[in-house]
Specification:
By secondary structure, the chain is of the alpha/beta class. The chain is built from 8 helices and 12 strands. The strands form 3 sheets. The chain has a 7-stranded parallel β-sheet with strand order 1-2-3-4-5-6-7. A 3-stranded antiparallel β-sheet has the order 8-10-9.
Length: 283
């Protein structure tokens, strides 16, 4: 948790607890699990306990809210980077209730609730048709399979903003069913975040996947945020035999491309020479 988060698309990060369990391919190289293990917190997996925090921890967002009000500037809070707010465990219910109360007490903070379990949202939120002005609801969409499964559920909810985190992006994603011909019973997508996986065991995000997602967002007038290439970056065809670059077939671009493991800092976050920092307007 922290004020002034290093995550590009948020201002602060707040964790109501630590710990989660893997549910889909995007979880395979989970950065949060790796971080928890690094600091000795045994909180990952269905059978592990979750880590909870003191009142002092819960008072931090109240300070952020006071600062935001003083500056007359809304701030975004990512909740939660080390957990999933909608994990279906009964011992988390009292902490969820406390979170909903905290959201109500911090009207100058826009709370970004991101989940890989949108099927549990309806059971766990206290809001039905009247969602708070400061709640943005998001789901992870790492490939087409999970777009097809998760988006119809996410877009049912009348949250003030609905967003997708296509990170790690593991395949091409066609959003046409929810942009070109969106059913009237579903709400629109308000924001798309995309990025590749980081870390030495990461999987490469091919350029065509990122570009077609950006192009769809531009066509549908959805703000697009390109967070990072991740560990692998696109490069020119290597001229020497002992190159670390790998050859891939990019089915979207219809061409052979090369990706090299550079690390996320070197790989950067420019797509076609542009830094894409799209954000939706506050509600």
């Amino acid at each position: 948790m922290g004020k002034n988060s290093s995550i590009e698309w948020t201002d602060h990060t707040f964790n109501p607890w630590w710990g989660c369990a893997k549910v889909s391919p995007g979880c395979e190289n989970c950065y949060a699990e790796a971080w928890a293990k690094r600091v000795g917190a045994k909180v990952w997996g269905a059978k592990q306990d979750r880590r909870f925090f003191t009142d002092k921890h819960w008072e931090e967002p109240l300070k952020w809210n006071k600062d935001a009000e003083s500056e007359q500037t809304r701030r975004r809070v990512f909740c939660a980077s080390m957990a999933d707010v909608f994990e279906l465990r009964s011992e988390l219910d009292p902490w969820r209730v406390r979170l909903w109360s905290l959201i109500d007490e911090t009207p100058w903070l826009d709370w970004l609730l991101l989940t890989k379990r949108p099927q549990n949202i309806e059971k766990k939120v206290p809001w039905v048709n009247n969602w708070p002005e400061n709640v943005w609801l998001g789901t992870t969409v790492e490939n087409q399979k999970y777009a097809d499964e998760r988006l119809p559920i996410l877009l049912k909810f009348p949250a003030k903003r609905r967003f997708l985190s296509c990170e790690p992006l593991l395949g091409p994603v066609d959003l046409g069913a929810w942009t070109d011909h969106r059913p009237k019973r579903l709400h629109p997508i308000d924001w798309v975040i995309a990025g590749g996986e980081s870390g030495p065991n990461s999987r490469a995000m091919l350029p065509g996947w990122a570009k077609t997602l950006r192009d769809q967002c531009q066509q549908a007038e959805i703000p697009f945020h390109f967070k990072q290439w991740g560990h692998w970056a696109p490069v020119e065809a290597p001229k020497k035999e002992k190159s670390t670059a790998r050859r891939f077939w990019d089915e979207v671009l219809g061409m052979e491309i090369f990706m090299e493991p550079k690390g996320k800092k070197v790989a950067g976050r420019r797509l076609d020479g542009v830094t894409w920092d799209g954000l939706p307007a506050t509600a």
